[in-house]
Amino acid sequence: MFRQVIVATTFACASLIALPALAQAAGTTVTRTPGTVEAVHTENVTATISAIDAKTRQVMLKGPQGKEFAVEAGPEVKNFAQLKVGDQVDVQYVEAVAVQLKKGGGAPVVASQQGGMVTAKPGAKPGAAAGRQVSVVGDVIDLDPATRTVTVRGPQRTASFVVEDPEQFKLIAKGDHIQATYTEAFAVAVTEAPKKK
């Protein structure tokens, strides 16, 4: 939908980029109420470390179906030396988009962004959690009832989009504001390989 580029260079994000190579559990839910639409997408991925090259900091990951791929653990990955072949890498990823109608306008046309990241403590297994949220408010400057197209002028550009639900479209008028909020978060945890009996 409003997918954004994941901006980070950590081991965690390298794993996220390779999500299609692994078995994953994913789900998307969409909720609608008058004047609002929210969509949330979640993915859970698990891989096993099959090889580690300490010099290049390259880690080979193997998914449950046997597919392998390499990721580079950049300098942001603390406690790299704690990684062992057989350890599991668990990635949880969530992204959400919420669009809300603000009747009558009056709010400033702006864009804002906030976010943060937490990494593992010294001596612990590598891991990370991060998130960011982008919010944009724009003016409704045009409506086309024949195609249910709404044109919104934001702080940096003007965009048009089709409102699929006719009842939602009827609620929108020129001069209203549309606020769109995009949120993404991920968490990566490394767990030790099971002890051999």
Per DSSP E runs of 2 or more residues, the count of β-strands stands at: 10
Low-confidence stretches: 1-23
Biggest sheet record: 10 strands, antiparallel
What is the first-to-last residue Cα distance? 47 Å
Provide a count of the helices. Answer: 2
Using only C-alpha atoms, the radius of gyration works out to 21 Å
- The global form is elongated
What fraction strand?
A: over 45%
Mean pLDDT: 81
Secondary structure category: mainly beta
What is the gist of this entry?
The chain is mainly β and 197 residues long. The protein has 2 helices and 10 strands. It has one domain (11-191).
Structural overview:
The chain is mainly β and 197 residues long. It has one domain (11-191). Helices cover 6% and strands 53% of the residues. It contains two helices and ten strands. Strands 1, 2, 3, 4, 5, 6, 7, 8, 9 and 10 form a ten-stranded antiparallel sheet that branches. Strand 3 (58-62) and strand 4 form a beta hairpin. The radius of gyration is 21 Å and the shape is elongated. It starts with 10 loop residues before the first helix and ends in a 6-residue tail after the last strand.
